[in-house]
Specification:
Blueprint lengths: L5 E7 L2 E8 L7 E7 L7 H12 L3 E5 L11 H6 L3 H16 L4 E11 L1 H12 L3 E7 L26 E6 L7 H14 L3 E6 L17 H18 L1
Parallel strand pairs: 3-4, 3-5, 5-6, 6-7, 7-8
Antiparallel strand pairs: 1-2, 2-4
Helix pairs in contact: 3-4
């Protein structure tokens, strides 16, 4: 683990929340990216993504969005108990932490995420002014609320303040190609600059190297290269 990679603890609504953070070795200020994890939480796939971003010039941090749930709980149970209002509170706490860091350029912040985190990237970008753009990997459940949330992320797309980047598997069913087309059409209708990429032969979680059945190395490499080029232009 690089020397700058570390765990921090924030307290949100009276509950401790672990945050994994990494930053470039060079002095800042750097742009910053909040990473929203997939169902499994801040596992090897998510922490490596954070470290890859740091290696490319971004301060990156991923909050543990399941922190209100019992430790060791099946993550299927954890995700079923997520609440959109709690998620936004967790993101706000992470943003505040980053904004207080001398290595961060607070005017250049984005949000990214995989699977449920892709959904969270849209939710966060629509809810929090600090995020200038968002990157979503196979953002499922865009058409439903979680917990006491008001409306689904799809119905908040008009609140996006900046461009969006999306990566999807053509064989995925959540989001399905029809779901992706619907999101694409809505962003076009709203006049929001966006760029979507779909990979044939790839399904859900194609970037998750801890899941050999889903992992697609070529799609992962291509999406990372495209993401870094897009962030360079938009952040």
């Amino acid at each position: 683990m690089p020397s700058n990679a570390r765990w921090e603890v924030l307290t949100v609504d009276g509950v401790d929340m672990d945050v994994f953070i990494d930053e470039p070795a060079a002095p800042g200020p750097h742009p910053a990216i909040v990473v929203a994890h997939h169902r499994a939480g801040n596992d090897a796939a998510t922490t490596k993504f954070v470290q890859d971003l740091a290696g490319n010039g971004y301060v990156a941090a991923t909050p543990h969005l399941h922190h209100r749930r019992p430790r060791g709980e099946d993550t299927r149970e954890s995700i079923a108990n997520l609440d959109d209002n709690h998620i936004v509170a967790d993101l706000n706490a992470t943003v505040a932490m980053l904004q207080a860091m001398g290595s961060v350029d607070a005017n250049r912040m984005a949000i990214s995420g995989h699977c449920m985190g892709g959904r969270v990237s849209f939710l966060g970008a629509a809810s929090i002014e600090a995020f200038k753009c968002n990157v979503a990997y196979y953002s499922g459940n865009m058409f439903r609320t979680m917990g006491a949330g008001d409306v689904p992320p799809f119905d908040k797309l008009d609140k996006l303040r900046g461009p969006a980047l999306g990566f999807f598997g053509a064989d995925d069913q959540n989001p399905s190609p029809d779901d992706v087309a619907k999101i694409d059409a809505r962003l076009t209708e709203l006049g929001i600059d966006h760029e979507f990429h779909s990979y044939d032969g790839a399904g859900h979680a194609f970037q998750n190297f801890t899941n050999p059945g889903h992992y697609r190395a070529a799609a992962t490499a291509d999406s990372m290269a495209k993401m870094l080029a897009w962030l360079e232009r938009n952040l």
